[in-house]
Fold each of these.
Amino acid sequence: MWSIFFVLLSLSLPYAASQDTSQALRPYDCIDPQNPSLSSRVEIGKNTTVCLYAGPSGDWNSNIQYKRFSVNLIGDQFSNYHVPGSYDAIVSKGFFNTNATQIFAMSQAALSFQRRYFDATTNFIFPYLTIIVDVVDGVVRGIAWDDACVFCEESKCIPNTYNFDGTAATKETASQPTNGCYFPKDVCDAFHATQNYVCDLKLYVVWTGTDVNGNVLMSSDSRFSAFPPNRIQEKVLGSYNSMLSEVGGWGQGIKDKFGSLFGNN
């Protein structure tokens, strides 16, 4: 059951932007509670904790119910964290019972802006979620979203970044990319029915800056936006084409709709 992956929490969060320069760790900060001294500073090749929060859209300054996932990743190693069963729970079964499900990431005392994972009004799923963790001498100073427009045709990349009061963030106010590519829900339904879980909630993580020993963090050079968009889209389309061969029962319309995301229609 999907629910076993979560512990239900309720917390009043203060407004927070992507840059948090506080060095003092707080009780609800994102560190490994079993090894706080080891995970409270980033060191290349050592465990560092990243947390992923999922919850309803709207104002997070008030008490809301949300889910928190914590995972130890290897510092400065291009990583991804897949939440098993998340598409089925959030999209298919409406776990949060809301018009939209939004997520944000946290590490140490820094947190990102929010991004939408599922919009029930438009029936869009945003599967491309990559954070860039900015570190100074092992202390996480900020978390920014990578440019997610490299995955689709420019016209299919739409605004998808939000403040914690529920308002939309702009590229100018957030000082980072704010748009993202989406999949229509019926395309994701077809993938999911054939046990291809590409629309499950997944977070990619890279680091930049310096670790606790002053060593330069290099994994941000491997982020998706560091490569030409045409190469990324060719790779994405190529990998999904094999999946599309398995969704024949869903009709040519599904394949055409998927191809349109890459300007093939």
Amino acid sequence: MKQILSPTLLLLIFLFLCTTASGQSSAPATAPTGPAAVSVQSLPPAPATSGPSGPADIIAVLQKAGDFTTFIGLLKSSQVDALINTQLKKSNQGFTVFAPTDTAFAGLKTGTLNSFSDEQKAALTKFHVIPSFLAISQFQTISNPIHTQAAGENTAEFPLNVIGNGTHVNITTGLVNTTVDSTVYSDGQLVVYEIPQVLLSQGILSPQAPAPAPVPPKPKKASPLNALAPSSSTTASVDSSDVSCLPHYVLTVVSVGLAVLAAMSLSL
């Protein structure tokens, strides 16, 4: 049995090997492949880093807040906006702006703003600007009246008194009493406060007229030489008076002489 199975088994193995070899030879040769490509997912671009932001623009601040169209117009026409923006770039003194809303201007007497001259409008705008940064807490200890851009050192015509009590701030000008409604913007150098009334002062309503220029004195006319000489009439009057007085002197002298002679004769 072992002799019969062994050749048969060997034949089967041989056939199996031949079939396998022929199958591999008939399959097309494939080109060698390189390393598999790795898919790389694109990353989102890094956000651009910007340098330090520059000083705020007063017009941009008010436009972003809204409801300050009239005040923006006054700032532009009086060029106070350029003054604020320029100073913010040049120095660190800062500015405090009390910005009346459009509703505040609508509350003025009809025709008030239109009746103002350009000088009055400029003074009105500057009266709402303080040339220093003042936080809410500083109004509790600040010295009043406060110097505004309109007043300078002349606070008599432009008195602005600001009194703080916690978060409540009261503003008085002698003609207007109002409060600060909210803080529109603050960055440590520029602060803008919303107010519900327009700040008016006597210096705005009755601007002082410029002092007239001194009038030069009129030159004196040269006196003619004839005017300095005594007139003939004056000379004549003096001569006539001397002549009229001469007889009186003569009579007096004669009288005195006769009295002396009489006295001498009696003594003899």
Amino acid sequence: MAASLSYASYSATFTASSSKTSVSPSPLVPPSIKVPTFSPLTVKPLSSTFASHTARVIATLTHATSTPSATPSDTSATTFHGLCYVVRDNIDTDQIIPAEYLTLVPSNPAEYEKLGSYALIGLPSSYATRFIEPNETKTKYSIVIGGANFGCGSSREHAPVALGAAGAKAVVAESYARIFFRNSVATGEVYPLESEGRICEECRTGDVVTIELGENRLINHTTGKEYKLKPIGDAGPVIEAGGIFAYARKTGMIPSQSK
């Protein structure tokens, strides 16, 4: 009973107090926010010249096509002549240039030469003839002939750079790991050429060979045999220029270093 009276008394007091100071709650209205306005962005279309050059550069970073390039190529008269070095299938980038030598910086001329002295040093001992003789920095084999999946493994750019620094001009293989092919084009160090058959089973290390890019053929002067090569396509002019950046400067896609 006492509790009920106390509650009634509290309610009456609260009601009386509320009636004296009646305050209507203010509506919940969000504060006004000024939203900045922007002018529409106008994007100008690429010029047809730039677009065509871009398309050609992108095309060179894909695998070699099976059809000749439709554009004039500076490599039509390019030939390579010398001794060949023959390897087999699945030559990976660790065999081309082991990871312990990746600290060498190719942009430094002295380290570039040193990098070349280790090219193909990772090949197993079953290769009795070494690509580079002891105490030498350059190879006497200007053309490397390989089997299937040449350049597989990691994506290191040092692999084609090491071959080029050693003095190799071209690699002829039955097929390539895509990343090695792309890195060869991007760096411009060696021509990654594809054969239409297993030349690695018919040539021997030390054979004298000639590669004629314009004719898409390899001639083995030691055996007297000729072999058909797949066209290098649009990748040819990029390698001829010295790599993707040199090609971009040559074609006006980016400013030349002299400007």
Amino acid sequence: MFVRQLRQTLRRSLPRQPISAVPRRTLFWSSAAPVVTHLSTASIPSVAPNLLLPLLAALLLASDSDDLPNDPPWTPTDMTKLGKGIGCLAARALSRGDLLIAERPLCIWPQGLTPQQAEELFAAMSDKQKEVFMQLAKTEGKSAGMSEVLARRATNGFSIKLPGSGKTVGMIFPRIARLNHSCLPNCSQAFNVRTSFFSKVSEYLIELCTQFETLRMEVYPVVDVAPQEEVTIEYLPSLIIQPHATRQISLRSSFGFDGCLCPACTASPDAIAVSDSRRLEIRSLSQGLIGGRTDRTKTLSSMERIRVLLEEEGYNGLPEFEDPAVSNAYAVYAGMHARAQRTTDVA
């Protein structure tokens, strides 16, 4: 029964919301000029030779749809006065669930590159790919002291796990790389995958096994976004269960910024204390669901309490917890609750 409900949620909940772990940025970027060179929607990424797996190669050579949006409805804007470098402002009203962009990666490179390896991979790119790559920003934080190529790779990369191989690679999506981080994001990014099969952990916890579908990163609003409002995503997983101080350490160590400037992190001390209390309770509740150790009544009670806490926190996306199975289970619960609410509203 629960597996059937999960399948229905994947098909009918907010379109393409991330159900399994969401790819996040590996490093933050600071100020840079807006990108002026673009690749076509059907461009073939620059792929490291040792990553040309049969699955990936077959996908790259497959026919592609021309109706996927490749030009994002946001405008890169200088926000240095706010300490953010370049930010992206909505060029029009964005509706919750709309597909804003479906972008193929500029390059697919292994993790842990040496400067020499990065230079060799860069040299193998086309002239236009090189131009787009060098227009990307590089952070003043963790990538300081790196080569120009490696710094841009580190600053703008998303860590993506290749299905069926166990390998994690770095992919760069130049347009999506322009989006700033927020601990209360108004958009969510998800790699375009399809569920191939389910692995049942317990009656209520499901592991999802996925395959690439179009090799594109997609961005969707999780709330309605007004024109000229900044479009943001969340760079790291599981920040929803971290208090303010821990989030600052995580973001500083990963991205090199001195402090997150999102509304959750720049609130008053009293508001931050209340937020920390909520996030720590969410962490405790989610940890209690690991392994499916609770009975049905307690599981549903914990899920509902998490939903209420997220609503109070102003977190509108689907959260990632420490255990992907718990994240999947909550996604199902949230979808069922949303459908029930819509039915009640109509009645």
